Amino acid sequence: MTDEEFEAFYARSVRPLVGQVYLMTGDLHEAQDVVQEAFVRAWARRARLERDAGPEAWVRTVARRLAVSRWRRRGRAADAWRRHHGGLPGTAPEPEPGTVALVAALRRLSERQRRVAVLHYVCDLSVQQVAAETGIATGTVKSHLSRARAALAPHLDDAPPSEEHRD
Predict the structure, then answer these.
(1) DSSP annotation string for 112-164
(2) Average pLDDT over residues 79-107
(3) CATH topology of domain 94-160
(4) CATH 1.10.10.10: which residues of the chain?
(5) Which one of 5, 9, 45, 91 has the fewest beta carbons within 10 angstroms of its own beta carbon?
(6) d(CA 48, CA 83)
């Protein structure tokens, strides 16, 4: 990938990737930070990105892994803060209400279900692409998607249930 191709890739991919990672992590600022860090790492290997599974998938995977690592470090830091100061440091305010509702609903899912649901419904990856990116069997991806839909439905559906949906 040439420098110009990488710049075009960055320009078209940064916003969607931040949105996708935000839905996986529930923290917009963290998503922005880890996506930027993943792009820095991608820049260093831009000549090999096209040969990999796809540059966007690579950046998304790296960003998610960075977020998990940071989350673990923050957990240890928060424990240390509580031990020494008796409470938690302040947190940033939440974004728009619709986004907050979606993130809150996604937080109810297991990490694996949340990741699979975001990759499939937000990133618009096929079941096979989700399986390849996550290393999860296709049947398991389908199972996680089904369970995620069932778990999310009561939290995101504002319309009253129709007769066909009642038992």
Answers:
(1) HHHHHHIIIIIS---HHHHHHHHT--HHHHHHHHHHHHHHHHHHH--SPPPGG
(2) 63
(3) Arc Repressor Mutant, subunit A (1.10.10)
(4) 94-160
(5) 91
(6) 45
